[in-house]
Structure formats: structure tokens, C-alpha cells
Amino acid sequence: MFGKSITLFKLLGFEVKLDFTWLILGLLITWSLATGLFPHFYEGMNRATYWVMGVVGALGLFISIVFHELCHSLVARKFGLPMKGITLFIFGGVAEMNEEPPSPKAEFMMAVAGPISSIVLGLVLLGMWFLGEEGGWPLAVTGVVNYLGLLNLILAGFNLIPAFPLDGGRVLRSILWGWKEDLRWATHLASKIGSTFGIALIILGVFNVFTGNFIGGLWWFVIGMFIRGASRMSYQQVMMRRSLEGEPVRKFMVTDPITVPSTLSIEELVEKYIYIHHFKMFPVVDDGELKGCITLNQVKKIPREERDKRKVEELVQKCSGKNTVHPDEDAMRALSLMKKTNQSRLMVVKEGQLVGIISLKDMMKFLSLKVDLGE
User: Fold this and answer.
1) DSSP letter string over 225-267?
2) What band does 374 get if pLDDT is binned at 50, 70 and 90?
């Protein structure tokens, strides 16, 4: 979903990251507030004041989204659901989950936490705006507070639309899941509604473009495309989880993996292994003893002119819970680990010995066969 992102800070144990696409949103919000909304509703102030209001308004939006997603994450933590963190991107923000909620109740409580938090924040801000109006606060201050209060209520209202993967769509899925006790069916129906809603936004966007509202229409079109794509992806992820759950890693692993010795030069590794086998990770084994592994990302950091002088043993990553799984481990755990660590291959280790390699490619082949067989 995301491109390059930077970690801004940690909040209550959650990493708050900023995808570079959010900078586009921040600039657009600042510009539209400083040149459009604030001058229209609050006349008579100078340009510098409007730009300061625009910047503060954009920062307020940033804080509002973080607060919204943080409430999702705190409720998820309460139900034992591991969260990767919070990422802000061009369409807002998302609390990143490695797993599906464990129950309909957990899904429901986690989903409603965000909109409720936005409603509460919005009402608090509007209360501050009322006090500011009565207390004679500067117009620039009350204007921004009023905007942020209304914005949070709008954010809550939009998120409550029952279109998956919006919060309202997750509430709908939790209700359907609890009714039929079938997560796959509930996700399928909620995703269909989400996809339909996305198509409706796309049509609305096209209509706005042809009626002269190009910028607004373009935004509706892009948001519709995102919601439609996200709803379909969410269903595919559930299908993948249901297909892999209960399947042991040993079912997918390659039992005779290509390994490299630690005495090999980096140049030989590149020429005789990476270029030949096209893998991004190789186990390092000396006389039957597993030393760890070496990855393409490590090799990329070595300057080309130094590759023939450097050895694999200098870069070996020791075996750990981040690059190994047990052959009896659930395949979904392996898939989650790959996603979490951004790897496509893991070493399968039993009692300290390398017994195989499991790859994302091999698991995808299995899923493709299940689809072909109508399962």
C-alpha cells in the first residue's frame, strides 16, 4: 500500500510513520485553506495570517488522524492484536495490522474506536471555538479551531459509511461475521459493498470533472479508485489466510536449498549464485553447520570494487526469529513474518539444522492451484 516512509516518533509504544505521499496531501490542504477556505469565511486578514492558519490547520489534521488511528491501535492491543504502527499517507492514515481480528467483537470495538474518538475530539474543539467566540479570542485562532472541530466530525461521518475497508465497513463485517460465523463470507459481502461505493465515487469524480470542478472531481476519482482497490485486496488477504491456516511450513519448503560457504567472496556470490539462481537470500553453511544467511540488501551495500576482497562470513546474519521458522510452524505465521520483515524467503530450521527454505513464491503457487481447483 505504501511507498517510502520515515518514522517520526513513538507514541504509547506505536511507531508513527509518514509516507512521503502525505506531504502532497499536507501541501494541498495548506494551499486550499490559505487561498480558499479561510479567506472566504474570514475576510479582512492579511495573506501571511491566512498562510499561518493554513499551516496550523494542516498540522491539526495530522494530529487528528494520528489520534484517530491511535485509538484503533489501543483497542486492538487490548484484544491481543499485534499492530505494526500508524502510517499517514495521501488518503489519511492507517493502523497497520499483521493479522485479522480474533473475533467479531474485537473487530467491532476496534472499528468504532476511531469514529468515536473523532466525534469526541470534534465536539471538544467546537466547545473550545464557542468559548473562544465568547471570550474574544483572535479570529484567526477561532477560525482554525472551528475548522478542525467540523473536520473531525466530517472525518467520523465519512469513516462510518458501511463500505469496507472504511471503519463503517469493518463494523458491518463484524456484524455479518457474528451473524453467520463466517469471516470469509462477511469479508466478501463487505468488500463488494466497498467496491461498489468506490465505483460510485469514481462516477461522481468523472461527473464533477465534466461539470467544471476539476480538482474536486479528481480527488473523488482517486479516492474511489483507492477504496475499490483496498476492498478487493482485503478480501484477497482473507482468502489467503483461510487457505494457509493450518498448513505446516514443511508442506511448502524446498528440502534441498542452495547454500553458500562463508569463505566465498562477495564477487563469487554475485556471479555464481545471485545471477544464476535469482534468490535474494542464501543460507550460509560450512561442513553441514548452519551459520546464518546473507541477503541481497547486504550485498548491495558493498561497493563493486570491494566485492572480490570481502567474504560472505563478514556479512552473515545469525539465525533468529526474524529469518527462521520451524517446519511444523503454521504457514500463516511464516507469511506474517515475511510481511513484517519485508522478506520473500525464510530458513526452515529444526534443532539448529537447516532442513529447507520456504518462499513466498512457493506459497503463491499453492494458492493459485487451490483457485484453479475451485477451492
Assistant:
1) HHHHHHHHHHHHHHHHHHHHTT-BGGGT-BSS---B-TTSBHH
2) low
